Amino acid sequence: MKKCKTVFSVGILIPFLFTAMAFAEVKIGYVDSQAIISKLKETKDVQDKLNELYKSWEQEAKNMEQEIQKKQEDFEAKSLMLTDKAKAERAQELQTMALQLRQFEQDKLGANGEYFKEQNRLMQPIIDRVQDAINKVGEDEGFDYIFDTVNANIVYVSKSQTNLTERILQELEKEGSAAAAGSDK
Predict the structure, then answer these.
(1) In the structure, how many helices (H) and strands (E) does the chain have?
(2) Interstrand relation of 162-163 and 145-148 (parallel, antiparallel or unpaired)
């Protein structure tokens, strides 16, 4: 009877041991892609371009707003001398200008506006370059999985896991140096 229990127990434990051994061989690392992207010079260059673009559109909107304000003040100052028809026309003109301002702000700075489209267009090559570096480090160093703490919503990372953020930055710097050397030739 004891022998049956021992064989039964060993029979149950062996699959668990093999499963544990299989999991022990999985090499997992993580990166913080936001930290990587924010440390790249190209990101600062893109941000500078976007800031210039934003400021120019902001100034244009401010100019439109000042023009509306000036016409509103002019309208109020002359309203006693205007006919009802002229008042209605001026009020309509002010309303149209205000709508144009709102439309301009939405088209340029809204959620689907030109600013965000330009940001996506300028950032995509940087994101692709970071992804390529992550893939290279993963292949070169034999990782099975690399998680991104930004996108994967990881709320806990064991101290025994490998943070590859600095390693990815080194790979990007190495690529940047190689590219610069290649362009100097």
Answers:
(1) 6, 3
(2) unpaired
Is residue 60 domain-resident? yes
Domain hosting residue 124, numbered range: 29-37+49-169
Number of domains in the chain: 1
- Asked whether 97 and 67 are in contact (CB, 8 A), the reply is yes
For residue 74, being part of any structural domain is answered with yes
For 141, phi then psi, to 5°, come to -105, 10
Q: Are 54 and 69 in contact (CB under 8 A)?
A: no
Kind and range of the H or E run holding 156: none
Tens place of pLDDT per residue across the chain (185 aa): 544 444 444 345 445 434 544 556 788 888 898 999 999 999 999 999 999 999 999 999 999 999 999 999 998 898 889 899 999 999 999 999 999 999 999 999 998 999 999 999 999 999 999 988 988 888 888 878 888 888 765 544 556 677 888 888 998 988 877 776 666 55
Task: Tell me if 57 is assigned to some domain.
Answer: yes
- Whichever domain contains 103, its CATH number is 3.30.910
Contact 102, 132 (CB under 8 A): no
